[in-house]
Amino acid sequence: MMESIASSVKLSEIVPHQEYLLQGSILESSRDALLHRLRGLCDNLETGPETFHDHEMVYNMRGSGQPIIFRARHSLDQPDVPWHLRYVGQTDLGDKSRTTLLRSCIDVGTSDNLVQFLNEMGFKLDHEFVVKGYLFRKGRMKITVSKIFRMLQPNNIDNIEPLSQSYLVELSVVTISGQEQVQEDMKAFSEQLKPLLQLDKIDHRRLQAM
């Protein structure tokens, strides 16, 4: 049985880190052009990007304040790879001069009974989806190009349809608190993707209010 998260990893490994994030989207017709440009800019030039095909389930626990949200994710192509549990805190939008989104995050590898553990803790499944895409790296920056698929039946990863005709593109850096200089590296990298792709900080609270 999976023990509590706190006992399954070292304390230093679950101290929240800061994630700097820029996001954008690109039409499917422009995907190959973007992948070609990223191959030329990123570190994995010879081997090409990593690919992923994952099933993600979003769980929440509602109380008197903001709900607690955990994301449980596992690979469909490599079922023996450990499951991935992620907590993401509220986005810090207080500093208007900041060029990226900033939020706290915790990432933990777990055993394959993660869903059972979350259910026993009182979390409820909010939604789930399948995501396929490509992963590039440039130093400590991570760039993902992802196609998201809606699941037409609960827990049926074979009955899916594309959520849209676009790909979600995310540029992120996870680091310790106070590493504000990474924003400049991210902004400089994003400039090299224009005019093909515009990466920006997106206020998700506005999207939820629409």
Protein model, in words:
- With 210 residues, this protein is an alpha+beta fold.
- The protein is built from 6 helices and 9 strands, in the order H-H-E-H-E-E-E-E-H-E-E-E-E-H-H.
- The protein has helices at 5-8, 11-14, 31-41, 114-121, 182-191, 204-209; strands at 17-27, 50-61, 68-75, 83-88, 101-110, 124-138, 141-151, 160-162, 166-175.
- Strands 1-5-4-3-2-6-7-9 form an 8-stranded antiparallel barrel.
- Strand 6 (124-138) and strand 7 (141-151) form a beta hairpin.
Properties at a glance:
210 residues; alpha+beta; 6 helices; 9 strands
Précis, in short:
The chain is of the alpha+beta class and 210 residues long.
Low-confidence stretches: 1-13
Into which percentage range does the β-strand content fall?
Answer: 35-45%
Content-based structural category: alpha+beta
Output the helix-strand order. Answer: HHEHEEEEHEEEEHH
Percentage of residues assigned to helices: 10-25%
Quaternary: single chain
Number of strands: 9
Q: Enumerate how many helices there are, as a single number.
A: 6
Instruction: Report, as a whole number of angstroms, the end-to-end distance.
Output: 42 Å
Gyration radius, in Å: 18 Å
Largest sheet report:
8 strands, antiparallel, barrel
Task: Give the SSE layout.
Elements: H1 5-8, H2 11-14, E1 17-27, H3 31-41, E2 50-61, E3 68-75, E4 83-88, E5 101-110, H4 114-121, E6 124-138, E7 141-151, E8 160-162, E9 166-175, H5 182-191, H6 204-209
Antiparallel strand pairs: 1-5, 1-9, 2-3, 2-6, 3-4, 4-5, 6-7, 7-8, 7-9
